[in-house]
């Protein structure tokens, strides 16, 4: 009986390690390739480490002369910060209204928010595109900021968190003469920190990784985001594997850093909300 | 007197409530709600992005049934859905079950499995198309060293391209849905398993009689999310194959993008998107109806 258990455990660990290998392999391969000259990348059997020390930095140095990655990083960071800020501020106000205030059309308006979560992105892609063009915002970062700052998802997520905060807290504050704004800012917001952290991270992640919207709305080189720059780089230098891999590694690094520090919030947010950011 | 007082109090509360909503709802109405209705309107016109916007009744919708490109895209999408959805669910469920116990390094495995799902499709697409490179990619090198003669061409052959994309997407999303399944598994009361142990039930019996029924709400939600997202697949296709080789990986969302943004047939593109929206809506509705049969709350 005991040996059976040990065998089962061992098999389980072997499987788990095997799956982990499959999950990490592409990333390891990408890093390894980015450190090599093209001629060494596809050698079989594969060597994980580069042959010579010279090639280690070669690809990374070269991409920054071929592509204005610094600028793309700046653009993406700017977009991410602004969109996340507007998203958190306006969503939390709306979520406060939906969860702490009593008024006539509240639940009907919330239902409208929920209903739009069901609408697939391509159903509104064309009208959004037409509206943005007619506003003269094509090839302008404002287009992405306006389109991505007001998702129903953020309101939904924060409302869920706020509903779990006991009502007695704001009743007590009300008796002490606090208005809604003060209750929102001094009681509900501090208590919703985990929810807000989750929303910040999920928004960061989705804006950083977004490809479709920048592709539709941005054109001039000075406006490109990291993902878009990377996809153009791939088209232009697709035969230069080492360079492409170095550019790809650079695009993923911020996500890895955020994931290391904030994975608890990402995973909690997904487990609770069941919706992709 | 009292009544009047209350109604005016209600009124101020309504105004305050709406004021809190205003910053968000303005953007929400202009950039999400209005576009939905505007899109329905566009789908009944021949709008091309410039001057013409004549009403054409149901022409765009009728055209859908004759458009062989659309029909191909529809078929491709159905193939993508019926392969990627079950594979994703099985993979993520198995991973969740494997990790749902006291394990050394359990947290590490969870972190690793989840990681691909937060990376960008652009990066994933680029790396996998190199790994799947038919002549020198590591996968085919491994296969040929194992003595496989007829090496698969993966993304470069119209026979295998779409399924290769399915594999990439399952690899990327399995960890994401695993997290949802893990949350579902955690909520199953331990007493049920203890009671089953006393009754002498074995592992397989416990899985089918306790785990699966208790997990069915999560399974239901994951299924719906998977199906909805399978009808929206776009990024990975635009990065790896651009719909090719031939028409083999042209899915509905790609076809919509091509017709509307590239060919400037906004009216027809909008009709396609709403037809697709209807499909998704109906599938979801059917599932909500059907859930009574197999979902236990």
Core attributes:
heterodimer; A: 277 residues; mainly alpha; MetI-like fold; 14 helices; B: mainly alpha; 12 helices
Task: Explain what the structure shows.
The complex is a heterodimer of chains A (277) and B (297). By secondary structure, chain A is mainly alpha-helical. Chain A folds into two domains: 2-56, no CATH class; 67-273, MetI-like fold (Orthogonal Bundle), CATH 1.10.3720.10. Helix content of chain A is 78%, strand content 0%. Chain A starts with a helix and ends with a helix. With 297 residues, chain B is mainly alpha-helical. Chain B has one domain (64-294): MetI-like (MetI-like fold). Chain B is 73% helix and 0% strand. Chain B contains twelve helices and no strands. In chain B, helix 11 runs antiparallel to helix 12. The longest helix of chain B has 41 residues, at 2-42. The radius of gyration of chain B is 25 Å and the shape is globular. Chain B starts with a helix and ends with a helix. The interface between A and B is large, with 88 and 88 residues.
Strands, helices and their partners?
The complex is a heterodimer of chains A (about 280) and B (about 300).
Chain A lengths: L1 H33 L3 H4 L12 H13 L2 H32 L5 H12 L3 H14 L6 H8 L3 H12 L3 H9 L4 H12 L1 H17 L2 H6 L8 H11 L4 H33 L4
Chain B lengths: L1 H41 L16 H8 L1 H32 L6 H9 L6 H11 L6 H8 L15 H26 L3 H9 L4 H28 L4 H6 L11 H11 L3 H29 L3
Helix pairs in contact in B: 2-12, 3-7, 3-9, 4-7, 7-9, 9-12, 11-12
Report a brief summary of the structure:
The complex is a heterodimer of chains A (277) and B (297). Chain A has helices spanning 2-34, 38-41, 54-66, 69-100, 106-117, 121-134, 141-148, 152-163, 167-175, 180-191, 193-209, 212-217, 226-236, 241-273.
**Overall pLDDT score of chain A:** 86
> What portion of residues of chain A is helical?
over 70%
User: What's the alpha carbon Rg of chain B, rounded to whole Å?
Assistant: 25 Å
Taking the sheet with the most strands of chain B, its summary is: none
The CATH architecture category of chain B equals Orthogonal Bundle
CATH level 4 superfamily of chain B:
MetI-like
CATH class of the largest domain in chain A: Mainly Alpha
Number of strands of chain A: 0
- What class would the helix/strand composition of chain B place it in? mainly alpha
CATH-defined topology of the largest domain in chain A: MetI-like fold
Overall shape of chain B: it is globular
User: What is the end-to-end distance of chain A?
Assistant: 46 Å
Counting copies of identical and different chains, the oligomeric state is heterodimer
Task: Determine the structural class of chain A based on helices, strands and strand pairing.
Answer: mainly alpha
């Amino acid at each position: 009986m005991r040996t059976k258990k040990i065998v089962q455990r061992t098999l389980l660990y072997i499987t788990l390690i095997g799956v982990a290998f499959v999950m990490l392999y592409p990333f390891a391969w990408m890093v390894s390739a980015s450190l090599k000259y093209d001629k060494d990348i596809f050698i079989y059997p594969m060597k994980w480490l580069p042959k010579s020390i010279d090639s280690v930095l070669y690809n990374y140095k070269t991409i920054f002369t071929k592509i204005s990655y610094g600028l793309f990083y700046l653009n993406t960071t700017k977009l991410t910060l602004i969109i996340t800020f507007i998203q958190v501020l306006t969503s939390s106000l709306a979520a406060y209204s939906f969860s702490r205030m009593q008024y006539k059309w509240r639940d009907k308006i919330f239902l409208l928010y929920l209903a739009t979560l069901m609408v697939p992105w391509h159903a509104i892609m064309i009208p959004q595109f037409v509206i943005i063009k007619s506003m003269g915002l094509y090839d302008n970062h404002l287009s992405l900021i306006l389109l991505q700052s007001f998702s129903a998802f953020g309101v939904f997520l924060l409302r869920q968190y706020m509903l779990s905060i006991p009502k007695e807290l704001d009743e007590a504050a009300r008796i002490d003469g606090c208005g809604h704004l003060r209750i929102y800012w001094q009681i509900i917001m501090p208590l919703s920190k985990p929810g807000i952290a989750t929303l910040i991270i999920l928004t960061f992640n989705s804006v950083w990784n977004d490809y479709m919207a920048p592709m539709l709305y941005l054109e001039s080189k000075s406006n490109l985001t990291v993902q878009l720059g990377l996809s153009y780089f791939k088209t232009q230098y697709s035969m230069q594997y080492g360079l492409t891999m170095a550019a790809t590694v650079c695009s993923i690094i911020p996500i890895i850093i955020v994931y290391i520090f904030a994975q608890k919030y990402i995973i909690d947010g997904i487990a609770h909300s069941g919706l992709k950011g | 007197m009292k009544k009047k007082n209350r109604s005016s109090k209600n009124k101020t509360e309504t105004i305050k409530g709406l004021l809190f909503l205003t910053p968000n709802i303005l953007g929400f109405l202009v950039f999400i709600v209005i576009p939905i209705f505007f899109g329905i309107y566009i789908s009944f016109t021949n709008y091309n992005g410039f001057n013409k916007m004549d009403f054409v009744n149901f022409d765009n919708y009728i055209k859908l049934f004759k458009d062989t490109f659309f029909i191909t895209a529809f078929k491709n999408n159905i193939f993508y859905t019926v392969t990627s959805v079950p594979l994703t669910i099985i993979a993520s469920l198995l991973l969740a079950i494997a990790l749902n116990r006291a394990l050394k390094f359990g947290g590490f495995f969870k972190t690793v499995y989840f990681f691909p799902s937060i990376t960008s499709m652009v990066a994933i697409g680029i790396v996998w198309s190199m790994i799947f490179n038919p002549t020198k990619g590591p996968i085919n090198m491994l296969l040929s060293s194992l003595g496989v003669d007829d090496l698969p061409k993966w993304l470069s052959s119209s026979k295998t391209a779409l399924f290769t994309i399915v594999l990439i997407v399952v690899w990327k999303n399995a960890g994401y849905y695993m997290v949802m399944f893990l949350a579902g598994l955690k909520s199953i009361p331990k007493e049920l398993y203890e009671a089953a142990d006393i009754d002498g039930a074995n592992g397989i019996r416990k899985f089918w009689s306790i785990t699966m029924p208790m997990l069915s709400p999560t399974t239901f939600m994951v299924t719906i999310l998977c199906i909805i997202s399978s009808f929206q697949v776009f990024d990975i296709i635009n990065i790896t194959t651009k719909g090719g080789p031939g028409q083999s990986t042209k899915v509905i969302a790609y076809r919509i993008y091509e017709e509307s943004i590239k060919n400037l047939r906004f009216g027809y593109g909008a009709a396609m998107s709403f037809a697709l929206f209807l499909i998704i809506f109906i599938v979801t509705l059917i599932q909500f109806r059907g859930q009574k049969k197999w979902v236990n709350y």
